Amino acid sequence: MQHEKPFSQACENNKRVILSVLERVFANCRQVLEIGSGTGQHAVFLAEHLPHLIWHTSDQPQYHEGISAWLEDAYIENVKPPIAFTIGQDTFPNLDVDGVFTANTAHIMQKEEVRLLMESVASHLPQNGIFCQYGPFKHSSKFTSESNHAFHVSLLERGYGGYRDINELKAWAGELSLNDVIDMPANNHMLVWQKR
Q1: By CB distance 3.0 to 4.6 Å, which of 52, 128, 149, 175 could disulfide with 143?
Q2: Is the separation of the CB atoms in 97 and 56 below 8 Å?
Q3: Distances, alpha carbon 193 to alpha carbons 8, 118, 185, in Å
Q4: Within the chain, how many helices (H) and strands (E) appear?
């Protein structure tokens, strides 16, 4: 039932603008791993609208029940049940993916975890593979808005890692080239990386 599933208003707000980017950049991909599937809302919506893809969900085990609830209600054949994947604890999923997607994870994770994320994606994507990274970021140590700076401070106060700088991500990205930085609503961005 609908009320038993976890719900994120942010996912509802941003899913269509995210899809508008993924339709283009994942056009030649066949299998995508979503890192940090959260509630499962993005997976259901994006897999339904990108039927050429096999969409693999993953997250920490405590989120699997909610993700599975969304998947079971939607019954979309090209989205797969969640894989247990915690950066820094689990090995990268053994999947033949040519795309990776993650949304609103980098500012929650600790700095070292984000570095591991970038390095892991870079080492596991094939040549020309695509990594799409959605969320709020700093640009050359600057915040894009006062509200972003305030949110960053609140994240640090709650023990999260806070906003990462795009230059920092590039330094950790190894063979990933940053092809595009796309402005998104609510002071967010989509970073589009490609494996060289």
Answers
A1: 149
A2: yes
A3: 26, 10, 20
A4: 6, 7
Q: What is the DSSP letter of 93?
A: P
How confident is the model over 41-99, as pLDDT tens digits?
A: 999 999 999 999 999 999 999 999 999 999 999 989 999 999 999 999 999 999 999 99
Query: DSSP H helical segments within 9-157, as ranges?
Result: 9-25, 41-49, 64-74, 111-124, 146-157
Domains of the chain, start order: 2-195 (3.40.50.150)
Residue 17 corresponds to which amino acid? V
pLDDT of the residue at 80: 98
**Measured between alpha carbons, how far is residue 4 from residues 68, 77, 88, 94 in Å?**
11, 22, 30, 31
Q: What is the pTM of this model?
A: 0.96
Task: Output the pLDDT for position 4.
Answer: 79
- Matching residue, tokens 């999923």: 93
